[in-house]
Amino acid sequence: MINVIMIWALIALFILQPGIAHDGAETGVKLFVQALLPYLLPYIILTQWLLKLPASKNSSPAWMRYLKAYTLGSFGGFPVGAVTVSEMKRNGQLSAYESSLLLAACHAPGPMFIVGYVGLELFGNSMAGWKLLIAIHVANILFFLFVLLLMASKRSQHEVIGNLPLPPPSSAPLLDAFKESSSIIILVATTVVFFSSLGSVLTTVIQAAASVEMGIVKTAVLALFEMTSGVQSATQHFYGSAIFPYLIAAILSINGLSIHMQVFVIARSAELSLKPYVIGRIWSVLAVPVFLYMLL
Q1: Is 118 within 8 Å of 231 (Cβ atoms)?
Q2: Cis preceding linkage at 18, omega within 30
Q3: Residue 168 CA: distances (Å) to CA of 2, 8, 22, 58, 69
Q4: Which residues contact 41 (CB under 8 A, 6 or more apart)?
């Protein structure tokens, strides 16, 4: 009943604020085309192509499979980590337990996005982008090592990879990679446009209902719904302030509901638990700004 009421309330907001909803959706489209698609699509295709190639699940030790998941998943941008771990689980390279834990660790923005977009375009300095990327991966690697220890201590309590059935190998891995990548890109585009529009409408409603500073409200709401919109709002309202780089780090760590929805859809399709992912995001929000402060 609560869900039905919420849905109808959102429908009413979109009907009452069509112009703002349109502007928010248009902003989401521009963000996707200009800031996400050029950085995300090539890497997703190559990652999917690599994962579609025939591989023996017993040809490498467990730690090498975990390292492969982290390397492919954590350097391709959101939601490549979820895509990588889910595909490795379907290929029989990871168990459901391992995949659920790695889902939380293999989650980071792509280096081209951080260095190219955040570093050069927002910070005006590629070195600042590199430092932010290092802070993100320091937090992720520490969490990744914790995950490795947890999996090593409980490995005997869960299914053994060697006992899991292997799916039939793909006859055309590149074509399958394009097919899978297209569905992922559509998912990313849909969530970015929807949550950008929703964030814009809710920002206007909150501003009209309460006397609060527009920059704070807009940045907070947009960061909650769509990460890239939140980053742009923070740049617009807080650029030059002492807290600006740490605010950007926090927004990138929060991710926003748009990215979380992408991960949830992908993880659910592979029947993965989301509890470790939630814990990982809380750790990231707390740790990344601290590590960035130490580097700056």
Answers
A1: yes
A2: no
A3: 43, 45, 45, 16, 21
A4: 181, 185
Structure tokens at 204: 């206007």
Helix (H, G, I), strand (E, B) or coil at 24: helix
User: Cα separation of 63 and 80, whole Å?
Assistant: 20
Six token digits for residue 93: 């390279």
- Residues 106, 141: Cα–Cα separation, whole Å: 9
Report the C-alpha gap between 63 and 93 in whole angstroms.
Answer: 11
Both tokens of 163, joined, read 């006992």
The answer to pTM > 0.85 is: no
pLDDT in tens, 192-247: 888 888 888 888 877 776 665 667 777 888 888 888 888 888 888 888 888 999 99
Helices marked H in the chain:
2-16, 18-31, 37-52, 62-74, 80-90, 96-105, 111, 126-154, 173-209, 214-225, 227-238, 244-254, 257-269, 275-295
DSSP code at position 75: S
Query: Model confidence over 18-61: pLDDT tens digits?
Result: 888 888 888 888 878 877 787 778 888 888 887 777 665 556 77
Nearest to 31 by CA among 237, 168, 143, 192: 192
Identity of the residue numbered 282: I
Q: Are 78 and 262 in contact (CB under 8 A)?
A: yes
Tally Cβ neighbours within 10 Å of residue 66: 22
> Rounded to an integer, what is the distance from CA 76 to the centroid of its chain?
10
d(CA 153, CA 255): 30
Dig out the tokens for 168 from the structure. Answer: 């039939």
The values of phi and psi at residue 43, to 5°, are -70, -40
